[in-house]
Amino acid sequence: MIHFNRFPGKRVLVSIIQTFYSVPTVVIGLIVFAVFSRAGPLGGLNLLFTPTVMVIGQMVLITPILLGLTISALRGIDQTMLDTARSLGASGVQTATVVFREARYAVVAAVIMGFGRAISEVGIALLVGGNIVDLSRVLTTAISLETSKGNLELAFALGIILIFIALVVNVVLNRLQQR
């Protein structure tokens, strides 16, 4: 784990991770497109314009958020807790479990942030998914399409559905967090 170890370049690595919080989704989509296009290194997998490559793009998008916010959450844990667990003979996994249990609220907040970034994303879905009906069209790309067609009623209805999904997921995660 980045937080638990000291190594040269750690601060630079954390700064790079935090910089990737704000990379435009369309840039990530462009990179994933280049990797999975026919001319790209993984083009032979024929994943472009499929839900699979859309999920890969979403993972590339949210991984820095999850990593960076989890590192920040772990920084808030008192070092004496870590030292106490080790002095009592806890293994590395047991120590990490204790620390994560203490940081669980902030870690769940990181997951919620990652989910929020992913559910609101359009650029990756359009570039690597292609907005293909019944295959790779998602709510955000459908909203964009319907708005461009002037069908604002449907676009707003889809937006309300998207907000409702976000609300349900956030309520569930917050309930789990409180347990």
Could you characterize the architecture of this molecule?
- This protein has one domain: MetI-like fold.
- It is mostly helical and 179 residues long.
- The mean pLDDT is 93.
- The chain is globular and about 65 Å long.
- Helix 3 runs antiparallel to helix 7 and helix 8 runs antiparallel to helix 9.
- The chain has 9 helices and no strands.
- The two termini are 26 Å apart.
Structural class: mainly alpha
Mean pLDDT: 93
Radius of gyration: 20 Å
CATH architecture grouping: Orthogonal Bundle
CATH C-level label: Mainly Alpha
Secondary structure tally: strands: 0
Q: Which fold name is given in CATH as the topology? A: MetI-like fold
Number of domains: 1
Sheet of most strands = none
Q: How large is the share of residues in beta strands? A: under 5%
Unreliable residue runs: none
Taken from the alpha-carbon principal axes, the silhouette is globular
Q: Measure the end-to-end span.
A: 26 Å
Order of helices and strands: HHHHHHHHH
Amount of helix: over 70%
Helix segment count? Answer: 9
| CATH superfamily label | MetI-like
Quick tags:
179 residues, MetI-like fold
List the helices and strands and how they pair.
Elements: H1 10-19, H2 25-36, H3 51-75, H4 79-87, H5 92-102, H6 104-119, H7 123-129, H8 139-148, H9 152-178
Helix pairs in contact: 1-3, 2-3, 2-7, 3-6, 3-7, 4-5, 6-9, 8-9
Short synopsis of the structure:
This protein is mostly helical and 179 residues long. It is built from 9 helices and no strands.
